[in-house]
Amino acid sequence: MNDLSGLDLDPQNPPKGFNAVKVTEVKHYTDRLFSFKTERPASFRFRSGEFVMIGLRVDGKPLVRAYSIASPNWEDHLEFYSIKVPDGPLTSRLQNIKVGDHILMRSKPVGTLVFDALLPAKRLFLLSTGTGIAPFASIIRDPEVYEKFDEVFLLHTCREVAELQYGIDLVQSVHDHEFLGEMALNKLHHLPSATREPFANTGRITDWIKDGRFAEFAGGDLTPDTDRVMICGSMAMLQMLKSCCEDRGFVEGSNSEPGQFVIEKAFAE
Ligand code: A2P
After folding, report:
1. Chain centroid to CA 122: how far?
2. I want to staple 129 with a disulfide (CB 3.0 to 4.6 A). Which of 84, 103, 155, 233 is the partner?
3. Are 49 and 139 in contact (CB under 8 A)?
4. Is the CB of 192 under 6 A from ligand 1?
5. What pLDDT is stored for residue 211 in this prediction?
6. Does ligand 1 lie within 6 Å of residue 201's CB atom?
7. Atom of ligand 1 nearest to the CA of 203
């Protein structure tokens, strides 16, 4: 479906409760994945790891979904990373956005993948599949993560190798960054893994934990004594990793009561 409806949003006249934000960059990774950047309204504040409702006006009505903000909170633009669902009401249209178009954005970000929901610890594990890497793209570009934790491990599993590129470019950009590079040196570790194609690392995160490759990579198995975990992916992945944490004695945290792990669904249609 190559649906262009909704891409003619008048920025002067967004529906009530929404901002119209201008698209400044679009990058297609595969036929299933793309990222885009928008201008950031001056009054828009968020905590790294939060999500916001964004979308288009279709048939006169807002059509919005929850999207994690992938950019760090110090950037003056906003970045989003999206799946393209061929018949998805929103993404079949959103995938056609071009620089200069406008999208709708609610003004209030929310979410549980935030530092405030975790108690202090030594190691932080960011476990993601597919577009679930998006909130962690914000977190690993936030200097606070390197102040709060001695080591940060980003695990990202996708079906195909090409789907890992966003994360590979992201981690490279952190290491190359003038200030973040030094903070992340020897602290940020990245494990990209493919499940349906040959690659340097293969297999699901859950398999890595079970068969000991995770402990070898991280220098020790997961333990609530020293570790905190953030999880973002499909429902099935969340459930399995949640059990994995709970079996090891981790307690789930929230904004009102920080704990040892937090989860959030990678929102897709
Ligand atoms: P697999 O290829 O073995 O299904 P999806 O696109 O379906 O959301 O999957 C993204 C990645 O997440 C794939 O590599 C997939 O592996 C993996 N995955 C799917 N379900 C789970 C699960 N329950 N636990 C861990 N990883 C999962």
Report:
1. 22
2. 233
3. yes
4. no
5. 96
6. no
7. 3
With beta carbons less than 8 A apart as the criterion, state whether 224 and 248 touch: yes
CA 260 to each of CA 103, 204, 206, 263: distance values in angstroms, whole numbers, following the listed order: 36, 22, 18, 11
Q: Give distance in angstroms: CA of 237 to centre of ligand 1.
A: 7
Report whether residue 157 contacts ligand 1, using a CB cutoff of 6 Å. yes
In ligand 1, the atom with minimum distance to the C-alpha of 204 is: 26
**Mean pLDDT (whole number) for 253-266:** 94
How far apart CA 66 and CA 52 sit, in angstroms, is 5
**For 15-33, how does the pLDDT look when each residue is reduced to its tens digit (9 = 90+)?**
888 999 999 999 999 999 9
When the pLDDT of each residue in the chain is averaged and rounded to a whole number, the result is 95
DSSP 14: P
Stated pTM of the model: 0.95
210 lines ligand 1 (CB under 6 A): no
Distance in angstroms (rounded) separating the CA atoms of residues 236 and 132: 13
Which helix (H) or strand (E) segment holds residue 147: the answer is helix 143-148
